[in-house]
């Protein structure tokens, strides 16, 4: 976030959540203007103006009868530099660090404003943390995007947003044993990105979003891709060998991620405890049980996904395991 954007964010959030009015102040020479916020309380009009170290002393303090509070925004370029503030101003200055997203200094008499700003900075840290998480999980987000895009395409051709036409699914690459036997081996891969209905898609994408970032973090992006596709292909091969029906869905690859997580948890059990191993085994067991009790579930595909994920993750190994 750029310095100007950071100040704008603070101004916007303060005005939105604490009922400040946005205002504009001039520099002493009248050449520049600075954004601020103001609010009247107990008959006193208090104005917070957002500045940097270069213009901290250039704002006109004589504008209108109001109490002026300077908010000094530090950034990466000047955060370690000595900030020269006149002694008479020290109790009217709040200092925030944009780079570290933290409140650096707030005099006791301004603690009300400091507390408000602190809560906003905490919120901003949470938002930025979510952005960093999404950035780190770029492969998972990309896989979800491909699956959603393919569903939109099949929904358009099926003329139905809730359920996909089986003929459309076959046309776009569903696993069909007879066609694979004729040499259409690409179906072992394309079937991973097709879904039979909106509920099917949502459940699989939720599972991928919940599990994918963990596997992506502990194995790294390249190994994660290898595990995902290898597990998905092994899942399709198991389905081809042991199931006659048409098969589609990302669940085989997702079961492969469960297998990879199981391998990681087992090898790291002395450091992270055996609870994670038990939890993953429970999830796998519950899903297999659900698959056995519900119709139209490709259990052999799921089994192949788990086996494929375990075998491949044993080969590539997590970057955290030494």
Automatic annotation (TrEMBL):
The keyword Nuclease does not apply. Pfam families: Rhomboid (PF01694). This is Rhomboid family intramembrane serine protease. Keywords: Hydrolase, Membrane, Protease, Transmembrane, Transmembrane helix. Coiled coil: none annotated. It is a multi-pass membrane protein. The keyword Iron does not apply. It is found in: Membrane. It comes from the Bacteria. GO terms for biological process: proteolysis. The lineage of its organism: Bacteria, Bacillati, Bacillota, Clostridia, Eubacteriales.
